[in-house]
Amino acid sequence: MVAITDKEQKKLAEKHNKLLAELVKQPDNSTCADCGANGPRWASWNLGVFLCIRCGGAHRRIGTHISKVKSITLDNWTTEQIEHFRKIGNNRANAFFNPHPERNSPPRTDREVERYVRDKYERRLFVDHRNGVPDPTTNDAPYPMSPSQPASPLGDASNEADALTHLREMGFMN
């Protein structure tokens, strides 16, 4: 593993924050994936969705074995988490977890949020196995880039050490 200095770590964190800020500005990601509230500030990086604070709290309560929640501005993100998240996004996740939102309307009350999040992600009650949409959270699911998702600035780096080397080569770390 490549050891990085505090200065390099800070630059990498700044780069990650910039990438997350760009992702949350995309139209598909500018609202909470669960309730539709504007300006999400939290994210479940393993599910690949942006969340409002209320839905983020519900995700935390269902446990890290289902949803791994982080602040998009306060927490540190690894390169692997950023890359995994970039491959999914709200639109792709909802195409799998809730392909028929007209049947499973977004929650309004706190109690509904908890039940909705559990039904959607833990129990997977809204998944339509007949529509052929693969689970975006599995490693074997294809990850086509949508037009709203630019190609990764980290290239095809497969692990954090390779990504750090790639960032150095691009001039982000001195």
Our estimate of the beta-strand percent is 5-15%
Biggest sheet, strands in spatial order? 2-1-3
By DSSP, the count of extended strands is 3
Q: Termini separation (Å)?
A: 18 Å
Helix content: 40-55%
The sequence of SSEs as H and E is HEEHEHHHH
Overall shape: it is globular
Mean pLDDT over all positions? 84
Report Rg: 17 Å
Biggest sheet features: 3 strands, antiparallel
What is the count of DSSP helices, taking H or I runs of 4+ residues?
6
Structural class: mainly alpha
| Regions with little confidence, pLDDT below 50 for 5+ residues | 143-158
What structural keywords apply?
5% strand; 40% helix; mainly alpha; 6 helices; 3 strands; single chain; 174 residues; three-stranded antiparallel β-sheet
